[in-house]
Design goal:
The chain has 256 residues and is an alpha/beta fold. The strands form 2 sheets. A 6-stranded parallel sheet has the order 1-4-3-2-5-6, with helices on both faces. Helix 6 crosses helix 7. The protein starts with a strand and ends in a 6-residue tail after the last strand. 34% of the residues lie in helices and 20% in strands.
Length: 256
């Protein structure tokens, strides 16, 4: 696996040969088994696999955890290589947002509710960085986790509305044996907080918003709601101590 840090280097490494397929896995690093599942899916379906490792400041509000977001590039690189990634793109913030940067992308309606309501501007940052990555890498397919269902919906709409011709592949949420969805932010949880956080997957497993809300009594709940994505999901966000966790379960089809 090769690690590149500039747009120019990535484009030079990928070249202009149109033969073969490219898979892109956009990430913010701190890899866990959920990321590995994305890498492996991309490896199985493409000739070249590119993963980005970029903690995107544009999707964090000033009072959020940008400064303490987990970073472990050496470990991440080892996991990515083991999972079959060919190129790891690890740019700086200045590389992605150089001086004078002023162009932003917004998917209006899908960005307003749920996470969009709790984190104004978040999906503008997501949509902008994804469009930049799509422009740089020119993938045939891009891979996202079901745990971030609203993000997937936003990116799908972006691709559809701008006629990007990229297949967006959604990979099942990976969970620990106790049911908690894997997240880089789980590292913030103390043992007691983690035990309390298990109420989230148990509540969502009911697939009933009212019953789920009852099971989350005593926790700080940002929202719990049915979201009309594709497929529809029961989605929730809670705060346990200083840690904010999101999760969802599909309400149609195979819960994978």
């Amino acid at each position: 696996m090769k690690i590149v840090r500039t747009v120019a280097s990535l484009r030079e490494t990928l070249g202009t040969d149109p033969t073969g397929t490219r898979g892109l896995v956009p990430t913010m690093g701190a890899f866990h088994a959920g990321h590995v599942a994305l890498f492996r899916a991309a490896r199985a379906e493409n000739d070249v696999v590119v993963a980005s490792l970029f903690v995107n400041p544009a999707q964090f509000a000033p009072d959020e955890d940008l400064g303490r977001y987990p970073r472990a590039e050496e470990r991440d690189a080892s996991l990515a290589e083991e999972a079959g990634v060919d190129l790891l793109f690890a740019p700086s913030a200045d590389e992605m947002y150089p001086p004078g940067f002023q162009t932003w992308v917004e998917v209006e309606e899908l960005s307003r509710g749920l996470e969009g309501a709790m984190r104004p501007g978040h999906f503008r940052g997501v949509a902008t960085v994804c469009l930049k990555l799509f422009s740089i890498v020119r993938p045939d397919r891009a891979y996202f986790g079901q745990k971030d269902a609203q993000q997937v919906a936003v990116v799908k709409r972006l691709v559809r509305d701008l006629e990007l011709g990229i297949e967006i592949r959604t990979i099942a949420t990976v969970r620990d044996p106790d049911g908690l969805a894997l997240s880089s932010r789980n590292a913030y949880l103390s043992p007691d907080e983690r035990e309390r956080a298990l109420a989230l997957p148990r509540a969502l497993a009911t697939r009933d918003p009212e019953r789920a809300r009852e099971l989350l009594t005593g926790l700080d709940v940002d929202y719990i709601a049915v979201a009309d994505f594709d497929p529809p999901v029961l989605a929730a966000a809670i705060r346990v101590g200083s840690t904010r966790l999101i999760d969802n379960v599909p309400l149609e089809g195979d819960d994978q």
